[in-house]
Specification:
binds flavin-adenine dinucleotide; about 800 residues; 32 helices; six-stranded antiparallel beta sheet; elongated; alpha+beta
Length: about 800
Amino acid sequence: MWKFFQENQLLTLITISNLVGFIFYWGFGGLLAILYYKGRPPEILKSQSDKTVGSKMVMRDLLLGSINLFILSTITALFGYFIVLKGYSGIYFNLLDHGIAFSIFTFIVYLLWIDVSLYFAHRIFHIPFLFKKIHYVHHQNTTPIAVTSLAMHPLEALTFHAVTFLPMLFIPMHYIAAIIALVYTNVVSLIDHSGIKFNSWFFQSPSQFHDDHHKYFHVNYGQTFWFWDWAFGTWRRKGKAYGVQNFENKDDFKEFIPKNPQYIEYSEESFFVKHRFAAIVFFCLPASFVYTFFVNQWRKLKRCLNRENQHTKSVEIVKADCMKLQENSSAKLCTNRKNWQSLSTRLFDKKAYSQVRIGHLTNIIHVNREALIVRTEPMVTVGQAVDYLASLGYALAVSLEIREATLGGLSMGVGMTTHSHKVGLFQESVQAYEIILPTGEFLRVTETEHSDLFRALPWSHGTLGLLVCIELKIIPIKPYVRLQYTSVFSKAEYCQKIRELAVKADSPDFLEATIFSKERAVIIEGWFDDGKGKILTPKHINRFYQPWFFKHVETFLNNSSAAKGAACELVLFKDYIFRHNRSIFWTLQDMIPMGNHPLARFCIGWMYPPNISFIKLTMPLQIRELTLTKQVFQDIVLPLTALDKAIDLSDELFSIYPLLVYPCRIYDHGKNSGQLRPPREIDRIPGTNFGMYCDLGIYGIPQPVKDNKAYDSIKSMRTMEDFIRQEGGYPFLYADTFMTREEFFQIFDMALYEGVRKQYNLNQAFPDLYEKTRPEIDVLALREREDERRHNEARDQ
Ligand SMILES: Cc1cc2nc3c(=O)[nH]c(=O)nc-3n(C[C@H](O)[C@H](O)[C@H](O)COP(=O)(O)OP(=O)(O)OC[C@H]3O[C@@H](n4cnc5c(N)ncnc54)[C@H](O)[C@@H]3O)c2cc1C
């Protein structure tokens, strides 16, 4: 017999291939089926517990699966014999031919290849014609068991087999790698159909994922990994009707890109929640790096091609959109900037609004060096503006540290920086706004023309008009900034010192404090410097291998010279401006906990930071809810006299460190000051028309959450908001607020704003400020759910 097999190699191969296939299919598939029928444990999927498949269907699946298996195993053997063994494929048998690293690499490529091609092949089988004629055979069983995995039309089985084997022809691959990839894919397929609950592992989808495919049909096409559905918008969504009956509706197939990405999570903690850092490191970082590179090149090119009348044409687009949208729909207006592109923590639901195109407004139009004004379109980013202006020897008077922030966003929202103790908020640097009203009317708004609008536009968040151009104050700069770090070890002392430095006549050009614990802070003073003294060698604080800036600052706490106020450094102006950009202040450390480790900086540091846009894009609903219940993201404008109390309260409520403090002037613009009231008498600096305030930035995970203790984030945030109201402060509206409409109106002075909305007929055209800036999630309902969860947890313990 042995001799027979030796002489008939092909037959031997066919026999072995079939034997292995059947042992695997009947053995492992049968075992899963037995476990499924035995019930708990193992846990049966919810969709299966109310209905079990009849024995006729099981027999059909087993028979059909076995026929397919025989065909596929035989073809596999033929492929192995005529293609692989004869050397017509990329398969190699000696590991040393290409080395271990290459073999691992091609294994990963092959695995991804199989999965993406199965995903698309599967999608094609869902085209109505093919579904009805072919794929329906597999879908007849809506509560599949393991053996259903191969119960399909033979044509479909052959197609899947072909896309799986095709890459072997040209991808050089070690035979063991090919076998592992094939076995793994098939094991997952059996598990996916088993009806038994298997959780997500690494990128592999949980069994509920494919089970939902059998229940809802044209969702979750992915075989092994879930990310294809996530990336291509076919992940099952909440509140959407699915079923075979929809097939005749062609619209159903238009939804290639997700419009309503409220995804169902397939395990209690989805991969993104559990391994957020992996999504950031493996997706957001590389995607941001490539995206930023191309966008920058594109913008540079656009600037070179900037034609005389280009801006006029761009404005015409906005005008035309406004008029057309207002004519054809009663929906209110908003910009078409995607939610994920904005730095705001919210995911404002734009679907209910008519969206006006503004994405093309990305040009810096003109720099007037005599008047020290830059004229620019609103979608220009801070990074773009600083790079361009610095090359001419200028900077924005108020310039944020985050390169991605847009000048339009900062002028319609709010902006503040370490120069604000000298010049005030971003709005103080705006010389003119050019806006389009819903009627298409163009308005140039300055301190003297439409002065009411001039005061109401800051903090209006796009609810008073569409910004098409801004003119901003610029300041001449020197190439360097000399920094002085002073460590202080008492809260009373550092609060006092910041107050003194902020108001004194020769105050530093830049001033901030980083508070590392209630009693320990480093105060950073900065002065423009031409570097000619050559006493200090410039330090390149932003190079990828350097520690994150706040970590660098922390080292001064242990530095005795800093305690004496003598630790100085010279840094390039642009390095100074974007010192917090790499680590997005300190928020990146929660996303990539080891991100500041020297090894991490060397391996991935050159890609920092991930774009906030990509971070938001990969934020499932679950994480968004966690940002409300388990995280704090707040910038609060407070009178500097209240800083002491604010730190106490923040310590009590959140215990988050570091904290950021930027002193800032708030000017008194008289009775029509806009949404910010004139400073109270007690906060006013004698002999001036401004009060000295500060931005307190609280970003991170509260200590009780880190310690796994019960924590009511919404109550804490509302307590902080009460405090802000009492002290005459304001929360930045890019972050989540937890106030009722009445409370919101107590904080902000809405008199001028409402008068302007009435005067220019804007009430029906734009959402109001509260509607526009409240979280898209019902915070109170979320709190109830959280309470219930806590209650259940306590009961279970
Ligand atoms: C970690 C972190 C720290 C931060 N720290 C600071 C800080 O220290 N100081 C500071 O000032 N800010 C800070 N910010 C916030 C940042 O300044 C704001 O998000 C800012 O509003 C710019 O964001 P954006 O360009 O994405 O604007 P968007 O969010 O896109 O826009 C802001 C608002 O303006 C409206 N808008 C934008 N463009 C137009 C237009 N052309 N016409 C009409 N309406 C428009 C939008 O609808 C939106 O309501 C921080 C943000 C983060 C995430």
